[in-house]
Amino acid sequence: MLTPYSANELFEWLLAEDDFLLLDVRNEADFGRFKVEGPHEIDTSNIPYFDFMEEEEASVAKVPRTKKVRVVCAKEGSAMYVGEILEANGFEDVGYLKEGIVAWGNMLSPRKVDAGSDGHELWQFTRPGKGSLSWGLISEGELTIFDPSRNLDFYQSFAKAHSCKITQTFETHLQADYISGSRFLAEAVGSKVFANSGDFMGASFDYTPVKDGEILPSSSNGPQIEVIHTPGHTPGSTCYQIGGKYLISGDTVFLVSLGRPDLGGKAVEWAGMLFDTMTLKIKTMPADLKILPGHYIEWSEAKEDFLFTDALGEVISANASIYDIDTVESFTEFIKSNIRKQPDVYAEIRKVNAGWLNPEDDEQSTMDLGKNECAASAYAAQQAS
Amino acid sequence: MTDYTADQVLDCKGLNCPLPVIKTKKAIDAMDSGQILKMVATDPGSKNDITAWTARTGHELLSGGETDEGYVYFIKKK
């Protein structure tokens, strides 16, 4: 029987290293641009659905009969189409991804990072389709979200399941690689948006500007949130320290590399700001501070229980080739050598995140699809591999 | 995009994949070699799909692009 499966189910199978063939039936160009990734190697095959249409027998023969088949397509129609062909050819365990690759691109999966003795809880929300992370802090029935994506349904059901109310969201910077959910959550549930006016000045929606050094509450008696201005990736980039123990580091500090400062078209100027941030702020923070970054580049960065967090001291040693750079000139050279073109859609996404552009839901979905390109050294790593 | 005189017009507006390509194949199969099919779709996914499908089958994609009508394709049967 042809059975539908959800993006969350697919993710759980990937985490558990379940044995199946992931059959992607999109055209090669779309498959090449964006595919399903997970912490372990995935047995993936790309056979476009029109191959099954043109040469059914030869295409079916390419699909192994030894394991279950999970079909993926753009929206779900072509996966059902191919699934039915496979079933008619005697395949017994075939499933299709509900709502297609878009559902995978938007999917968020929650994992608990920590729970404090005072009852607060810290959560990681992984978005494997983007390689991005948002973070949630629950305290006294209130949920603070850092860098929410536009999957409002997820955050709302999460809040309901944990009997809490989404009261505030914090933006670490004006995102260019995905559409932020902050202003949409504000409209939907009345949560307050906090953001740095260095990035958000002129935004079309209401937000509360944050100031360097300011201390804000997560709830009346919950952990405190300290605002630390860390310009570089963008001029308004901001980290949030939670309870002196965690650092929501946005696109400033990643577990591998730093956030690239060339996305705004002022690479030299912003590289200078990032160098100061790195030397005068990040490197002077306590070594045991746990970094909670806005992105990962590879799944190999995940620690125990698929959590993307590590102590700052470890992060600095692991990235010594960057953190050891001691002059702004050499740092700028390093940045320059890693500059690569950013996806065209980033300019549009920035406008959506500032509220200047309001595309239809479908269009937002398309803009929002695909993996991030935010780390400074990904290009070099790709060239080397 | 360039317009061509079509021998047949196929309306795939409002349909999602795989239907635009399935219907295009069916229409082309019934046509004579050298004839031109105009296909109109609203699914943005049709862009890469029609390009890849014509490349695979050898039918010639004479032109394709976004117009007020939707995504319009002129395909010449091989």
Please give a handful of descriptors for the protein shown.
A: 385 residues; alpha/beta; Oxidized Rhodanese, domain 1; Metallo-beta-lactamase, Chain A; 2 domains; 7-stranded mixed sheet; 6-stranded mixed sheet; B: 78 residues; alpha+beta; Translation Initiation Factor IF3; 4-stranded mixed sheet; 4 strands
How many helical stretches of chain A? Answer: 16
- Tell me, rounded to a whole number, the average pLDDT of chain A: 94
Helix content of chain B: 25-40%
Oligomer: heterodimer
How is the CATH topology of the largest domain in chain A named? Metallo-beta-lactamase, Chain A
Q: Distance N terminus to C terminus of chain B?
A: 21 Å
Describe the structure in your own words.
Helix content of chain A is 33%, strand content 22%. Chain A is an alpha/beta fold. Chain A has two domains: 3-103, Rhodanese-like domain (Oxidized Rhodanese, domain 1), CATH 3.40.250; 108-345, 4-Layer Sandwich (Metallo-beta-lactamase, Chain A). In chain A, the strands form three sheets. Chain A has a seven-stranded mixed β-sheet with strand order 6-7-8-9-10-11-12. Chain A has a six-stranded mixed β-sheet with strand order 13-14-15-16-17-18. In chain A, a hairpin with a 4-residue loop joins strand 7 (121-127) and strand 8 (132-139). In chain A, helix 10 (267-281) packs across helix 13. The longest helix of chain A is centred in the last third of the chain and has 15 residues, at 267-281. Residues 379-385 of chain A have low confidence and may be disordered. Chain B has 78 residues and is of the alpha+beta class. Chain B is built from two helices and four strands. Chain B is globular. The model of chain B has no long low-confidence stretch (mean pLDDT 96). At the A-B interface, helix 2, helix 3 and helix 5 of A face helix 1 and helix 2 of B.
Summarize the helices and strands and which ones pair or pack.
The complex is a heterodimer of chains A (385) and B (78).
Chain A: E1 3-5, H1 7-15, E2 20-24, H2 28-33, E3 44-46, H3 49-54, H4 56-61, E4 68-72, H5 77-88, E5 94-97, H6 100-106, E6 109-115, E7 121-127, E8 132-139, E9 142-146, H7 152-161, E10 165-170, H8 182-189, E11 192-195, H9 197-200, E12 208-209, E13 215-217, E14 224-229, E15 238-242, E16 246-250, H10 267-281, E17 290-293, E18 310-311, H11 312-318, H12 320-323, H13 328-337, H14 345-353, H15 361-367, H16 378-384
Helix pairs in contact in A: 10-13
Chain B: E1 8-12, H1 19-29, E2 36-41, H2 46-57, E3 60-67, E4 70-76
